[in-house]
């Protein structure tokens, strides 16, 4: 072994012991006839003291940052102790050292407050991974992985691998496709999820399955999305919705207990999809703060204000304690809602002043009583500020949802160290795609409708009323997992495919293997998939999942370290019987 201990291991109880360490040079500090070196490895930092004789060697063989060094010496008590690191009470009085490998000057400093930009650090990701902050993130990811596996193993779940080279099936996003050399002009797809495989495993009798598995979706990227991502994928047989919710609420509590030391003693709250949309404007509400949406249509219309009178929806929120917002601050908010990504034409406000008076941007249309109605409906008190948007229903509700989150951010109500999980249940089974002029599955085509609404599957005019046996687990305004009770009868699955506009021939071509399996005693089953990267980022207090992935892609889906994707040579194209369009 090149070392007897790690650089994060030594304490005062080791004083006087001979040790051998190996690691990377973090810093070199020369003071006359002695030199101090901070030696770093995955486990921590230890200070080295090189005396006069070794100091002379350094003049002949200078050490630089990131040199790989082996040292031998004795553990001694430090004169100037460093309380900020676990090894800060000791140092190594070095008797000999060996340079195992030199290093070029790194393109950025390998420390927490690095001077490297995002793109530069991704190009040299193998260096970025040496930084303590990144190591902490990957360590957390490993601990969450281990915690989940231990929990599921204790509950009788079996880890079963499923294929990566599969058939392309519609699941809501574009597939990544892989040409087959042995089957010219035919293609595999990389799985968006193991959905059909885990259902087949239920048919096979493996009643508790899980995988922590890579999935692939060819879609536009953002902070919480990568082309390849990881799911905690789970399925259970002979269960109902309540069994799934209880099991995976328990798993979530287990992870929080082990990773964050947080104990959730109460059941997670549950909210219907209808209420989530009504009170929060989206199906993944952040319940760390109130500020619920209030429909103000009845109080707003009929007062001669055209914007309100012609709007499909007039909705408000109460920003408690914000009546002292200045005109400049209100103008900033108005410009914020006018941004293209929000898409509103303006913002109306009502100030409920501390003296009890009411002041509004629409005073000439509403008397004191009219403004008082807004205050009453929004449960406002003196000192509060009511913000109102009006327009097309879907856009306005979404815009108010975003404004609510923005106000929560500005008021410091979205604390990353506070965790508020909940279940959102009773989703619609279908949603209507106007551009395609057809019904599409809200989740995926294998989700079962509520049992009491099965009869509506024969009435296309009532598809919009059908609720799904589906559920999402939400944490701090982010969906971290979602699932459903599945369809397990062939006739109902065929009916579902038909409702989505699939002919029997198309359904047989794409999903014949699953329909066939349902003819051989498929059990009732259901499951859930957690976004593992997303869960880790929330536990780590970050908004981007890239911080918790060892080798992530950038926002263009490129690996700038490998320079991938890249061209392939003509020989490979010929073997695959492919030609490229110019």
TrEMBL record:
Residues 138-552 form the Aminoacyl-transfer RNA synthetases class-II family profile domain. Its EC number is 6.1.1.12. L-aspartate binds at residues 171, 217, 443, 486. ATP binds at residues 217-219, 226, 479, 531-534. It is found in: Cytoplasm. Residues 195-198 are annotated as: Aspartate. Belongs to the class-II aminoacyl-tRNA synthetase family. Type 1 subfamily. Homodimer. This is Aspartate--tRNA ligase. It comes from Chitinophaga alhagiae. The lineage of its organism: Bacteria, Pseudomonadati, Bacteroidota, Chitinophagia, Chitinophagales.
């Amino acid at each position: 072994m090149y070392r007897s201990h790690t650089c994060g291991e030594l304490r005062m109880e080791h004083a006087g012991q001979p040790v051998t360490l190996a690691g990377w040079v973090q810093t070199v500090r020369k003071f006359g006839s002695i030199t101090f070196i901070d030696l770093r490895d995955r486990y921590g930092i230890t200070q080295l003291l090189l005396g006069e004789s070794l100091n002379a060697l350094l003049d002949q063989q200078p050490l630089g940052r990131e040199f790989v060094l082996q040292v031998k010496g004795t553990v001694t008590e430090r004169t100037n102790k460093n309380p900020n690191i676990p090894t800060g009470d000791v140092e190594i009085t070095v008797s000999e050292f060996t340079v195992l490998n030199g290093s070029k000057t790194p393109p950025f400093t390998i420390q927490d407050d690095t001077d490297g930009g995002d793109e530069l650090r991704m190009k040299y990701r193998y260096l970025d991974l040496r930084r303590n902050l990144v190591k902490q993130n990957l360590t957390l990811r490993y601990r969450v992985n281990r915690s989940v596996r231990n929990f599921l193993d204790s509950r009788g779940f079996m880890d079963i691998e499923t294929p990566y080279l599969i058939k392309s099936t519609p699941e809501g996003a574009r597939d990544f496709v892989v040409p087959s050399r042995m089957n010219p002009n035919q293609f595999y797809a990389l799985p968006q999820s193991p959905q059909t495989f885990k259902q087949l495993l239920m048919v096979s009798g493996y009643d508790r399955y899980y995988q922590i598995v890579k999935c692939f979706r060819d879609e536009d990227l953002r902070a919480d999305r990568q082309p390849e991502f990881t799911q905690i994928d789970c399925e259970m047989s002979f269960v109902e919705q309540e069994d799934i919710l209880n099991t995976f609420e328990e798993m979530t509590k287990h992870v929080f207990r082990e990773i964050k030391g947080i104990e959730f003693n109460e059941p997670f709250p549950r909210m219907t999809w209808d209420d989530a949309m009504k009170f929060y404007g989206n199906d993944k509400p952040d319940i760390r703060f109130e500020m619920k949406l209030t429909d103000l249509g009845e109080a707003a219309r009929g007062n001669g204000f055209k914007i309100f009178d012609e709007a499909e929806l007039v909705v408000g929120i109460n920003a408690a304690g914000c009546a002292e917002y200045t005109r400049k601050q209100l103008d900033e908010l108005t410009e914020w809602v006018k941004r293209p990504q929000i898409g509103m034409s303006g913002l109306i406000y009502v100030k409920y002043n501390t003296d009890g008076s009411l002041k509004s941007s629409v005073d000439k249309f509403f008397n004191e009583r009219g403004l008082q109605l807004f205050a009453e409906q929004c449960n406002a008190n003196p000192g509060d500020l009511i913000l109102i948007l009006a327009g097309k229903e879907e856009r306005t509700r979404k815009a108010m949802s975003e404004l609510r989150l923005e106000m929560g951010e500005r008021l410091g109500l979205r604390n990353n160290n506070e965790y508020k999980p909940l279940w959102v249940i009773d989703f619609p089974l279908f949603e209507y795609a106007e551009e395609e002029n057809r019904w599409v599955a809200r989740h995926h085509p294998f989700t079962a409708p509520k049992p009491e609404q099965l009869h509506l599957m024969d009435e296309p005019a009532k598809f919009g009323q059908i609720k799904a046996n589906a559920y999402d687990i939400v944490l701090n305004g982010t969906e971290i997992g979602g699932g459903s009770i599945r369809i397990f009868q062939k006739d109902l699955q065929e009916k579902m495919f038909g409702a989505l506009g699939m002919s029997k021939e198309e359904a047989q071509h794409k999903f014949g293997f699953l329909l066939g399996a349902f003819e051989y005693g498929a059990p009732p089953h259901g499951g859930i998939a957690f976004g593992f990267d997303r869960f880790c980022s929330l536990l780590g207090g970050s908004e981007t999942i890239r911080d918790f992935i060892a080798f992530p892609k950038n926002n263009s889906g490129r690996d700038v370290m490998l320079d991938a994707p890249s061209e392939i040579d003509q020989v490979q194209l010929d073997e695959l019987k492919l030609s490229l369009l110019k």
